[in-house]
Design a protein that fits this description.
single chain; alpha/beta
């Protein structure tokens, strides 16, 4: 079932022999929005609309779930289980990007070819949060945003620190960053799905060109953020001036504008 989302044009696109629905809206530089578990929920669509209002062309493919469907516990669990057994997603691999990133990179490449400019941005979230690292191996991707990158699942010490790249890919990422491509990462500090070790890896490997936005979600924090908060730009975003999540959203938009202008 594919649902219409207000404000977006729905098309179907094919890469690598796989055809998927894609929602597109806006004008200006391109940003590929890769939705989180369980799918393109209303908060994910609202985030995409924020980017459209900020002057971007948003490309938002549907990779799993039902577009427009509200997040529930049952819906989330069933989607995670399907993703875990899918050949397109690597949820535990230490050094293998998910195969779906090849499909997404082809989309980014076409978006850049159509729109021109220095390149396109990528915003991944949750299960897809780290995909921007693999995608930035292509010259078209110049503004990767890693929002709560949750794979590989943090079930061991090694996996807590990993972002699913092999040594050769890391070397290419590090070189691109050294050449001036910045990477942004966002997470809540208490999020066990995105442990301290994962952002430590990004800092160690990418240095000052890794822009980390870490929001305090410890018990008793100043803003009353839940210790279980996870989705920085969508489900757990609080639309209030001065709130850390609202500031994180503003910084994300500013990052994309600066890199894609």
């Amino acid at each position: 079932m594919v649902t219409e989302l207000a404000g977006f044009d729905l098309t179907k696109i094919t890469y690598e022999g796989a055809t998927r629905p894609m929602y597109r809206a806006g004008s200006g530089p391109g940003v590929v929005v890769i939705h989180e578990i369980p799918g393109i929920t209303p908060p994910v669509a609202e985030f995409a609309r924020t980017l459209v209002a900020a002057g971007f062309t948003v490309f938002m493919p549907s990779l799993f779930g039902t577009p427009g469907k509200t997040k529930t516990t049952g819906y989330t669990i069933s989607t995670i289980l399907r993703a875990c057994v899918s050949k397109e997603f690597h949820c535990l691999a230490l050094d293998k990007p998910s195969p779906i990133t090849t499909w997404l990179t082809a989309l980014a490449r076409d978006a850049h070819e159509e729109l021109g400019g220095p390149g396109v941005g990528v915003v991944g979230m949750c299960l897809t949060g780290g995909f921007g690292l693999a995608m930035m191996l292509d010259p078209a991707v110049v503004a990767p945003v890693l929002s709560q990158p949750s794979t590989p699942f943090a079930v061991s010490k090694q996996r807590k620190a990993s972002l699913g790249l092999n040594s050769e890919d890391w070397a290419r990422v590090e070189q691109k960053v050294a050449d001036g491509c910045a990477v942004m990462g966002l997470r809540f500090t208490g999020d066990s799905n995105v442990p301290d070790e994962r952002f430590a890896t990004l800092r160690d490997r990418l240095g000052d060109n890794f822009i980390a936005i870490e929001i305090d979600s410890s018990a008793g924090n100043q803003h009353g953020i839940s210790t279980k908060a996870h989705s920085v730009l969508t489900q757990d975003l609080v639309d209030e001036p001065g709130h850390p999540t609202q500031e994180a959203l503003a910084k994300t938009v500013e990052f994309l504008q600066a890199r894609l202008a």
